[in-house]
Amino acid sequence: MHEGISISVIVPVYNTEKYLDACVASIVSQTHSVLQIILVDDGSCDSSGKICDAWANKDSRIQVIHQENAGVSAARNAGLQAASGELISFVDSDDVLPLDAYEQMLNSMKEKDLTMGRMSLMEEDGTVIAQEQPFPSGQFSIDDFIKELFQERRYCYLGFLWDKLLKRTIIQNQDIRFDPRIRLNEDRLFLLEYLLHCSSISFCDAVVYFYRQRTAGVITSTRRNQTVTDSEMTVIDSFRKMAVIAKTYSEELYYIVARKSFESALDLCSRVAREDVRKIRQIRQFKRENTRICLNDPNIGICEKIKIVGHCILER
To answer: What's the pTM value of the predicted model, to 2 decimals?
Structure first.
């Protein structure tokens, strides 16, 4: 039933020459072959751009966009601008897909606005080391999904884009794009905006994505720095934008986002260098504004509110 459904696969590429061939090979070999594969070379300094061009010469479904380095959000926007498929998939250029990933997700998606599959972690050399647990049976509404996006009670994290198929018409009609200034947490922000215009979702209880844990990845490198990086600081902008969206959705979600924002502020506080005065001020302001919101949350008990206040009193 889904043989003719076209999928635009958007792959931001930046200095991943070591992994890029394996990534693209896993896409072009999909059992569902009606694909538009958009490789966005985001100003790579290694041979990644040439590898993209070589693949385009071998497979007519591949389109390459070369641009100056502007970050993953700008690269994904460029891919969305060029996309023509009915559905959208995002893939990182150092990861790989099981060969039946799109077939499995399409079997699950049917008439839904979004489908989500399971993800496995693999070592840098490609060895699979962990797999997400099967999805629980039963209904999962859009409202439940949006709240779980921040609460992370039933799942670890729903905000990745790699393990999902999305409808291009929703993205285009609602003019949903990535904020190029935001370098981290941009995927959750994009997904939140998308979910507001969905009426139904489905789960694909199969592994559809292999995520490579790299020692030199963006997240890993920021954790090893002596202070919070400028890229990590954009998490604050992301949460502030999500708070604005949440407030228009429901008071409950607004409080949920505030609590997650507060937790993010605590994490930043624990890692920022003492001499990084400017960032300390920005993080503290972010923490205080979410403290005020959390203290008004009727769903947070008095003991928890005392702990929240304590975190502000004991600022280092």
So the answer is: 0.92
